[in-house]
Amino acid sequence: MDIVEFFQRSSGKWFSQRTSHALAFEQAKGGQSELQIELLPQTDPAVIKLCEQYKLDPTLALCGLRVNWDGTTEGEKAKQVGNTVLVPIADPDSPNEGTLLRTLGPGEKVLLAGRYSVGSDETLTLTAESETMYSEERLWFANPNLRFRTSVLKQSGGFSTASFCSEIRKGVTSPPPATTQSIADKKA
Amino acid sequence: MDIVEFFQRSSGKWFSQRTSHALAFEQAKGGQSELQIELLPQTDPAVIKLCEQYKLDPTLALCGLRVNWDGTTEGEKAKQVGNTVLVPIADPDSPNEGTLLRTLGPGEKVLLAGRYSVGSDETLTLTAESETMYSEERLWFANPNLRFRTSVLKQSGGFSTASFCSEIRKGVTSPPPATTQSIADKKA
Description:
Chains A, B: Its EC number is 4.-.-.-. The structure is a homodimer. The first copy, chain A, is built from 3 helices and 10 strands; from the N terminus they run H-E-E-H-E-E-E-E-E-E-E-E-H.
C-alpha cells in the first residue's frame, strides 16, 4: 500500500472516539469528532497553492487530502472545528516515504513540513519537528471501515501527551476500492 | 530490531495507563496496571515446559518473556492480577516473524499459538485467532522508557473493543542496552 491508496481508503465520513493520556499526570481525557476526509487530485487548486507556499514544484505532489473535523473534548465547552490540507511528496529514491506538506494549523505562524512513511505492516507514520516539539502519528486500518490512530507529542520537557482514536466509517455506501489487502482486512 | 531485543527492551517494571473503547457503543473505560516483565533464557524451565506443552522442540525457542500484571479497571471492584509466559519461535525463512507460544490465560482451556512480526518501523505485532475471535496487538517504543500498546479484539459479531496503553518505565536505574535505534529514540 502506498500513501495515495492510504489516503483514498481514508476518504469519507468518520466518527472518531479519542482518548488523550497526560503522561506525567496519569490522567486521561475523552473526546469525539466527526471527520470528513476528501482525496484531492494533484491538480486541485488547494494542492497547487500549498506547494507554492512551500516553494515546491506542484507537479511533484502525489495528491492532496482535505480533512475537516468538528468535535468536542471532555471538560471543554468550546467545540474544536477546523480543517487542514495535506500534500505528500515522495523521496526520489524511496516511494514509501517522503515529505508531507500541511496547511497552517490554528495559532501556527510558520509552515512546517513533516515526514511520512508507509511501513511493511501498512501503518502510515507521520512525524513533524520544530525547535520546540516533536510529534509522531501512526494510522492503520483494522478493516476498510475501522481506522486507528495514535499520536504522541514531545515538547521541550519530554513526552507530554499520547492519544488514541478509534475511527468508524459513517454511512457506508461505497467504501473506496482497495488494490491490496492487509492481514487485518483478510480477517474482516 | 528483532523480537529478542524488543523483549529485552521491555524488561523491567512499568506503569501502564489503559483506555478501552467499546466500538459499538462509543464508550471509553480507563484502567491502570503495574507490569513486571522479565526476559527468560531459552534454558529457563518455564520456556522448556511451554514448548513441551505445544509439543515443540525447546531448542527452537528464541527466549521467553514472563509478564506479571496487577491492575484495576474503572467501575470494577476486583483487581486484575495475573501472569503469562510468552515464547517466540522464528519461522525458518523469515527471522522477523514466527509463532508465539503463550500460557493459558484466565478461563482459557485450549492452548492457542499466535503469530508475531517485527515491522520495518520497529513495531511488534502479535495476532491470535480461534474459531470465535481474532486479536491483534501492536507494541512500540517512543523512547527506552515509554512504550505504547494497542489491541483490538474481533469476535463473531465484528470488531468489539480497542484499547490503548501508555506505559512508563518505573524507577529507571539501568535501562536495557539497545543495539539499534528507532527514529523516536533518536529524538528522545
